[in-house]
Amino acid sequence: MNWCLLIPLIVGVICAILGYLLGRLSSGNNTAEIEAWQKKYDKLEADLTDCRSKLAAKPSPSVSSKTENTTLNLIPFDAALAKATYGKKIKQDDLKIVEGIGPKIELLFHAKGITTWKGLSECSVEKCEEVLKSGGKAYEIHKPGTWPRQAQLAYEGKWVELHAWQDELKGGK
After folding, report:
1. pLDDT (tens digit, 9 = 90+) per residue, 28-51?
2. Cα(78)–Cα(86) distance, rounded to whole angstroms?
3. Helices (H), 65-143
């Protein structure tokens, strides 16, 4: 018999048995940790159930929320209708959908806390001009006279009307 094959085989079997026994001995002390994790999981499940029941109790057609001391009645955004009208995907509250507003002007409005179509629709033209002035002279050439109305149409989901009007506008004028 060839001892060169038998010795590594015996050593391997002994190591496997010792590894198994050591694993069993060390894993027996984890029951307290498992129980602690189970309690945390049960608490999270209870919190989730509570949140779901509170959400179900709220009216769903129009959601009311407090923002900047005014109550907003949010109109659901119909992404499919917007895409059908514009032929491209439209993200909700993307101010760049307003003719005359590009990425940099959108950032100026966001910096002033105007981040939604609803918020822009409630701005006066003078407020829009103030936002543009905050960006420097390069932005003062823009004419935001139609921006609040365009934002209102977007907020209200009147995509066909907005798109037809924008076809007539040049740079928001």
Report:
1. 666 777 888 899 999 999 988 888
2. 13
3. 79-86, 103-111, 117-121, 125-134
The confidence score (pLDDT) of residue 26 equals: 74
Instruction: Tell me the whole-structure pTM to 2 decimals.
Output: 0.56
Alpha carbons within 13 angstroms on the beta-carbon side of residue 84 total: 8
Q: Which amino acid is at 82?
A: A
Calculate Rg over the CA atoms of the chain: 31
166 Cβ contact list (under 8 Å, min separation 6): 99, 150
Every domain of the chain and the residues it spans: 69-168
> Would you state the pLDDT for residue 171?
53
Q: ∠ at Cα 140 (157, 152), nearest 5°?
A: 10
Dihedral Cα 40, 45, 50, 51, nearest 10 deg: 100
